[in-house]
Request: fold
Amino acid sequence: MTIPTRDLNDKNSIPALGFGTYKLWGDEGVDAIQSAIDVGYRLLDTALNYDNEKEVAEAMQRSGVPREEFFVTTKLPGRFHGYEETLKGFEESRVNLGLDYIDLYLIHWPMPRLDRFVDSFKAMAKLQAEGLIRSIGVSNFTTVHLDRVINETGITPAVNQIELHPYFPQGPLRSYHDAHGITTQSWTPLARQRSPFKEERVLAVANAHGVTSSQAILRWHIELGSIPIPKSAHRSFQEENAKVFDFKLTPEEIASISSMETGRLWGGDPDTNEEL
Ligand SMILES: NC(=O)c1ccc[n+]([C@@H]2O[C@H](COP(=O)([O-])OP(=O)(O)OC[C@H]3O[C@@H](n4cnc5c(N)ncnc54)[C@H](OP(=O)(O)O)[C@@H]3O)[C@@H](O)[C@H]2O)c1
Reply:
């Protein structure tokens, strides 16, 4: 299966759908990631804090797919915020992944209490200039954090990866992204344990197109202009989730799913959430 690509604001291209790897560990994790690669996923989303960059590296190696076909994302944790610290944290990830360069490097959480995310972003720009990172971005940033990065570095992040699912469509933040040329990525696109699969509005859209609830939701992300990164340990779900490029939702169907909004599900308020 070939997943289409789209352009970022720095002219690099990125797959329009990715594979999340959170909680995929050990041999089982490697098998699940390798299966996703076999299905056709090329965007692999990991983080130093997921403690599975080595599993991602192993799966990539075993797959036999050339390195340049992959789009590997990893993330800087809070304990490495700051200019020099970021250089060190990045190197740890790069070595774990066994790669010469990382396709997309993100600041995992802004952690405004530390007030060091601008310094981290400056260090990421240096690594990008050296060819060690292709695209630089952020995760869980609000418009206030994004304004600071843009104003204080003169660089607009390529991506902001945020909590986004039918219960939290993130309308205002997506509008800001659109106005600034930032690509939105949806983490927990299927809303994980509070599964929206049985919701009437999702089932109505799924039935109208002869697709599953998961496919209806993932297509909704794509119609919103976001890149979903669903995780699944099962090949059948991995295949199902990648088949979302041969149907389109109507504006009414998009609005119907967006109207399920209730708010954040995990209390991960970017102004206060801390992950070291
Ligand atoms: N930047 C951040 O702060 C942040 C935070 C959280 C997550 N993330 C990233 O986002 C990725 C995705 O989020 P997530 O893993 O939390 O949740 P998710 O992708 O919304 O949901 C994953 C869950 O849905 C199940 N599932 C997947 N496809 C399915 C299908 N077609 N039918 C039924 N069930 C299905 C999976 O089951 P099985 O695995 O059992 O198949 C798993 O339990 C993560 O892996 C991670 O890479 C980033």
User: Anything to note?
Assistant: The chain has one domain: 5-194+225-247. The first strand starts at residue 5 and ends at 7. The pocket of NAP is lined by residues 20-22, 45, 108, 139-140, 161, 187-192, 214, 229-234, 237, 240-241 (CB under 6 Å). Residues 67 and 99 are 9 Å apart (CA to CA).
